[in-house]
Write a structure and sequence with these properties.
Helices cover 43% and strands 22% of the residues. It has 269 residues and is an alpha/beta fold.
């Protein structure tokens, strides 16, 4: 399932999600949520908005805002069906009304992966990861694919291991995408991981036994070195443990902001 917030990001996100669905042999559905909190805010007598073109402060009209939201939904619906028109499956586009996080949670339990995107500023204006994304991580009902702003054809698939027992679902997901994309697989083992040397050896043995053509295990000195390593290995996808990073949103936000690559937050399901 793919969730787009605006027509500006919808075309890029739908195209990326369509490619993922084709690789996985899965159906792609799209969801747009009319944010009830936004409409409630617009109904307040003191609510104002800054016009981006004129820099003027203007009053909010709830009927006008509602029409704009419906127009965005119509644009996204048209973009979605235009994007998937050549696919062998027929996707669905749904419009729901209410709290964004709650509505997404009501839908993702029946899906394997939710595809979404960060905002255009790559979270730089936020001190914490978006509340919706945190809510989805905490629920842990499906894997999350966060589409990045950088695509490197032939770039490596990188996973990060920073705990024991080894999160094998992360390794397996990274290997899956490495094989489907015919891309190198790189596993970064954090030096602070308990028994890091044994973890490196265990994953190295797994790569050899699985006959992965291009696989490498690298010891990463610290979390701050991950960005440099993603650049060094021309990462195109970063695969992380959803359970681990729901408790460390600031670290995830940092990697999202500065790496600009797509991120798959994998659950065991």
């Amino acid at each position: 399932m793919v969730a787009a917030g605006s027509p500006a990001s919808g075309q890029r996100l739908y195209a990326a999600a369509s490619r993922l669905a084709e690789i996985c042999g899965a159906q792609l559905d799209a969801l747009f949520v009319e944010d009830s909190a936004l409409l409630q805010m617009a109904s307040l007598p003191f609510a104002r908005v800054v016009n981006a073109d004129s820099a003027r402060i203007e009053s909010l009209d709830i009927e006008t805002l509602a029409r704009q939201i419906r127009a965005e939904a119509d644009q996204l619906r048209a973009l979605f069906f235009q994007t998937v028109s050549n696919q062998p499956w027929s996707g669905q586009f749904s419009v729901l009304h209410g709290n964004v996080c709650q509505q997404l949670l009501s839908q993702v339990s029946r899906r394997d992966v939710l595809v979404c995107a960060t905002n255009d500023s790559r979270l730089q204006s936020l001190s914490h990861l978006g509340q919706t994304l945190c809510g989805l991580l905490n629920a842990g009902r499906c894997s999350l694919w966060i589409e990045g702003g950088v695509s490197r054809a032939g770039g490596s698939i990188v996973s990060v291991v920073d705990r024991t027992p080894i999160p094998w679902h992360v390794i397996q997901q990274a290997v899956f995408w490495s094989q489907r994309r015919r891309a190198p697989f790189v596993c970064l083992v954090m030096a602070a991981c308990p028994g890091a040397a044994d973890v490196v050896q265990t994953i190295t043995d797994f790569i050899a036994a699985a006959e992965i053509q291009s696989g490498e295990v690298v010891l990463a000195p610290s979390a701050s070195d991950v960005i440099d390593l993603l650049e060094r290995y021309s990462a195109d996808l970063l695969v992380l443990d959803a359970y681990r990073f729901r408790n460390a949103p600031e670290q995830l936000q940092h990697w999202l902001m500065y790496s600009m690559v797509s991120v798959l937050l994998a659950t065991e399901s």
